[in-house]
Design brief:
Blueprint (H helix, E strand, L loop, with lengths): L1 E7 L4 E8 L2 E5 L6 H13 L3 E6 L11 H7 L3 E4 L4 H5 L1 H7 L12 E2 L5 E4 L2 E7 L8 E5 L4 E5 L2 E2 L2 E2 L10 H12 L7 E4 L5 E2 H7 L1 H6 L9 H4 L5
This protein binds zinc ion (2 copies).
């Protein structure tokens, strides 16, 4: 699976175009401007891709700015977890809370849950339900190429926010990381919703929140002071 990464909008939200054998999925169409939409379209054309599915890791407003445009542009199935529906229905409200505007997507036509798969080219993505940052958070895993798209669950040196957002649960988030993502193995590359790609191995060893969740001692975590405003 080839992964083309983009970073769009004022929230610096990653969007991924994953492709194989001429077929593709667009994960988190976060493009907020026409210029950003064109950036994706250029790569689609460059590789002559048939975009089969529009996928959402979750429906926070920063991840959905470009959904409506691509829904109309591609003949693709729009797929998300069922718990994304109320967030999509309240897209305007979400946008207002952050002082931005959004063209709300339609409600997805197909829902994804733990254990489902999404296929394109010769790739089969496994779906894991990884809630906590939001109830609809799902991760897409390509076991063959050892690559995973995990949305706002696990970042390089950080984890998804659980404060100041509706329907979050820090304990659910930590369970999702330790029980669903870490077992994917140290070699698994992670493409998060924000920031650079990383690996499970790197985060297991260096991410202070993951180390804490795994029961590391407080002596070897120097993040408490600097991160106190976020946790
Ligand atoms: Zn989010
Ligand atoms: Zn986000």
């Amino acid at each position: 699976m080839h992964v083309e990464a983009f970073t769009f909008n004022s929230f610096m939200t990653n969007c991924y175009l994953c492709h194989d054998n001429g077929e593709a999925v667009l994960v988190d169409a976060s493009c907020a401007t026409e210029e950003e939409q064109q950036e994706v379209l250029r790569v689609v054309e460059e590789h002559d891709l048939n975009v089969r599915h529009l996928l959402l890791t979750h429906a926070h407003v920063d991840h959905i700015f470009g959904c409506r445009f691509f829904e109309e542009h591609f003949d693709a199935t729009f797929k998300a977890h069922e718990a994304a529906v109320p967030f999509i229905e309240r897209a305007d409200e979400q946008a207002k809370a952050f002082g931005v505007e959004v063209e709300p997507p339609t409600v997805p036509t197909t829902f994804l849950a733990e254990g489902d798969t999404v296929s394109f080219g010769s790739v089969t993505l496994d779906v894991l339900h990884t809630p906590g940052h939001s109830p609809d958070s799902i991760s897409f895993i390509d076991a063959d190429s050892q690559q995973a798209l995990t949305g706002d669950v696990l970042f390089q040196n950080s984890i998804g926010r659980t404060q100041g957002l509706p329907e979050t649960s820090r304990s659910q988030l930590l369970d999702a990381i330790t029980e669903k993502l870490l077992p994917l193995g140290d070699e698994m590359t992670i493409y998060p919703g924000h920031g650079p790609e990383t690996t499970i191995g790197r985060e297991r060893q260096q991410n202070p929140f993951v180390k804490e969740a795994l029961g590391g001692t407080s002596e070897d975590v120097g993040w408490r002071g600097s991160m106190s405003g976020r946790s």
